[in-house]
Amino acid sequence: MVQKTDRFISNLTKDTYALVLAGGRGSRLHELTDWRAKPAVYFGGKYRIVDFPLSNCINSGIRRIGVATQYKSHSLIRHIQRGWGNFKADTSEFVDVLPASQRMGDDWYVGTADAVHQNLDILRSENPKYVLVLSGDHVYRMDYGLMIAEHVANGADMTVCCLETDIEEAAGAFGVMTADETGRVVAFDEKPAEPNPIPGKPGKCLASMGNYVFTTKFLFEQLEKDGADSNSSHDFGNDIIPSIIEKHNVYAHAFKDPETGEQPYWRDVGTLDSFWEANMELVSPTPSLNLYDKEWPIWTFQEMVPPAKFIFNDDDRRGMAVDSTVSGGCIISGSSISNSLLYSRVHTHSRSVIKESVLMPGCDVAEDCKLKKVIVDSGCNIPQGMEIGFDHELDKKRGFRVTEKGVTLVTRDMLAKLK
C-alpha cells in the first residue's frame, strides 16, 4: 500500500487532467433548462451547478481542466469565461471550454465516452498520467486527490467513485456497482430495476456518481476500441465499464469522509422537486452543505452588485427576511421574506409575502403578491397582486408547472402567455 501523504497526493493531482462533462440538458428540470444546460442552472443563491466540480478540482490541486459543452451552452460558456478564465496558460493552469465540434467525424458528442474520445488530441497534447472524468451536474464537495491516490495504490486501470444509497432511490436512476472485499468491481449494472444490495447492508446499494479516474494509456486504448465499435452507444456506463471489469483492474472508491467515515453531502438536483429541496436546505440554521468553509471555498463568477438592501419599517410594509438567504443587489422594499432563497438583483415590492420560494437573478415581484413554494426563473416580473402556489389548479390553468410535491415553476415564457 502506498503512503498517502499530502505531498504524494499533491504530485498526483499535478499529473492529472480533469475533463468535466457539462453537455447534458437535464430534461427532468423541464422549462428550467429550456435555454440553458443543466450544469448552467443557478444554485445556492450565487452559484451555478458546474461551479461545484470545478471548485473541487481547484481545491484538490488539479489545475488543468477541460469542460465539454454541447446542449444550449451559451450561458454556460459565458459563465466559465467570466468566472474561470483567470488562470495563466503559460504555467499550465487553465479551464478550457471544449464545445462539441465534430473533431473526429460528423457526429456531435453522442455519449459520455464519445465526449472524451473526441478530445483525445487535446488530452495527448497535455500528456497527463491520469485523467479524471467528472459529471458536471451534481452538487457536492470532494477532495479528488484521495480518489486518485487510492487509484494508484490499488494499481487500478479505472476507479469509479461511488456512494451508498437506498435501493429504491437507485433503481432505474443510477449505475450500480458490485465490489468484493478489496473494493474491486466484479459486476456493474446500468440503471437496473432491482439493484444488487451491498453485502451485509440490506436495502443499500453502491451507486456510481459518474466520476472516474483512468490511467491515461488505458483510457486511450479503451476509447479507441469503443470508438471503432459501431454497435456501441459510446457511453461509460452502458459500454466501457461492462466491457472491462472482467479482464482489467476496476475499483470502486467510496465517497466518504476520511475522518468520520460518514457520507458527505451530495445532491443530484435533477428534478424540480429535488432542486427546490436542495435550495431550501441551504436556508436552514445548520445546512448539510457548508458554503461558509474558508478551507474549501466554492468559486464562481462574482457579479459586481451593491449589498442587499431592506427598506421601510411600517406595519403594513416592512422590508424583512427571516430564515432566508438574500444575495447582493437585492432590494427588499416593504415585503416579507421567509424560508426563501433570493439570487442577485431580486427586487420585491410593498406588501408582498414570499415563503419557501427560490427566486433567481433579476426577478421583480410587484406589490401585494403572495408566493409559496415557488421557483421563479431568472428575469421574471410577477404582476401586481398575483398569488402563486396556493391554488395549484389555478396555477396549472395559467400555464405554470406544478410538480408532484406541490412546487410551482414560473418562467418568463409562461408569464408572457398570460398577457
UniProtKB/TrEMBL annotation:
One of its GO terms (molecular function) is ATP binding. It is an enzyme of class 2 (transferase). The record marks 70, 108 as: Could play a key role in the communication between the regulatory and the substrate sites. GO terms for biological process: glycogen biosynthetic process. It catalyses: alpha-D-glucose 1-phosphate + ATP + H(+) = ADP-alpha-D-glucose + diphosphate. Homotetramer. PANTHER family: GLUCOSE-1-PHOSPHATE ADENYLYLTRANSFERASE (PTHR43523:SF2), GLUCOSE-1-PHOSPHATE ADENYLYLTRANSFERASE-RELATED (PTHR43523). Involved in the biosynthesis of ADP-glucose, a building block required for the elongation reactions to produce glycogen. Catalyzes the reaction between ATP and alpha-D-glucose 1-phosphate (G1P) to produce pyrophosphate and ADP-Glc. This is Glucose-1-phosphate adenylyltransferase. It comes from Reinekea marinisedimentorum. The gene is glgC.
